[in-house]
Design goal:
Blueprint: E1 14-19, H1 25-39, H2 41-51, E2 60-61, E3 65-66, H3 68-74, H4 80-95, E4 99-106, E5 111-118, H5 124-128, H6 131-141, H7 143-153, H8 175-178, H9 188-197, H10 217-223, H11 231-235, H12 241-253, H13 258-265, H14 279-304, H15 345-354, H16 357-364, H17 371-382, H18 388-403, H19 412-424, H20 430-460, H21 481-500
Parallel strand pairs: 1-5
Antiparallel strand pairs: 1-2, 1-3, 4-5
Length: about 500
Amino acid sequence: MRMTNFLHYTENHRYCVYRDFCLSGLDDKMLSSIYQPMVGAFAISLYRLLCTHVPLEKVGYSPIDQQRRLFLTLGLEPSEKGRRYLIEQTSRLEAVGLLQTSRLYAPENDDYIYEYELQTPLSPSEFFNTQHLTLLLRDKVGKFAVLALREQLWSKEPQEWTGVSFNKENISVPFYDIFELNTHVIDYELEQALTEVETPRKQAVPVVSAGEGGLNYADIILRFPRESRNRVFVERLRHDHEQLGVVNYVVRKYDLNVQDLCRLLDEDGIFSSQGEVMLDDLQHKASLHFRQGMKLQEKRQVTAGKVVALHQELSADQDVPAEEHAVQSEYYVEVPLQFQSKCDIHQYNMMLRNEPYTRLLQTFFPGSVPAHFMDMFEKIDHSYKLPGEVINILIHYLMSLIAAGGDQRINRNFVEAIASNMLLKQVDTYEKAVQYIRDQAKSKGKQAAAASRTRTYAKGGKGKPEIPVAQTSVGGESVTEEEYEEMLRLAAEMQTSKKRG
């Protein structure tokens, strides 16, 4: 449990317990023999106490109560020392996968409610296949004790099977070979009734933590200057999770740290008069900072003679403000050659659909992204206002052209021409962008086929038209004497007139 302010976790705060399983005899033995040596007896007692909050024959939620009940039942003092100890014990349970704690904020009451969601203990096979848990148990009780515990929890095969090889055949009967459902009639009343009696899970507004690539409110307000005019707006981020999500979106997109973010939030024009974050202005300033930092990084690489890899995780948790969007299989694009050994087609398309283009460009280059590439897509993002997933498909299309070995050079004019064409055709979604590049591929294929047919026809017919050439007639009549004398006379007159002139 991450808790920076102990006034937010007291015996006066309310809590509830959620459990969707029941403990079996094997679970009890796993808790007492395996988990208790790792986390301690007090933590296991707390786990069993939380289990009893929900009736053993039921699953779901417990009634909401004050945490004073936990302090008094466990014999803890309702003081800072008792709070620290209870937080430490819950953290131990969370670390080994037995508990998940959530904090829900209720704006109406300006108060927190804590939800303790219990997780079922692992089975013996699952536990001993989990390396970090097995190593922790070895560090607590020793290697030989671990082997002895595994022997106690595992029933061996019959002795008649020892040393004998069998050909195992699955002869089980599937469901639809025995039972037949009436699928022609849809029982809407039953579906509605099941939906109404279903226990809804309380979903809190997700906030990206610092470990997931974002910054929490405590990190920001701790380093934000007190005399700043924007401090009153930053303090509102504590309860405005949507605006905090917008800030974290920019943080992750441009790889900002908390000092850089505080400096940007302190500038004029970042907040509106109502205290809302001006996303375009914040992105523009963050982009300038990102570009400057990238140039400095390139200079360091040249000076040190090293290439720093900027690869990021392809399957990170989704940031706010937008949830992670799935991609339908009919809109999958092929995985480029350089990614086929790193991810499958589903992971690659999820990356195209949800990652910012700045992070996607870094995955295509082993070192830093060339400056002219970043310039092109920065203009498309801020000037053309193309959505991020459309820019990612454009990057994929350009990289596929390069991989195909064509003669087309990827320059600024070529990229901006494609982006302008996308704007004219109103390509504003991931699906439209995929369909656009497919149409482009089909049209290029038709043009190539037409050019090939033209070359074939030219080879089969006449290459150039034959131009008639005047031939000297050798079989014509000769010149008579009268005509010859007339020609001489005309020539003499022309010569005389030439001398006079």
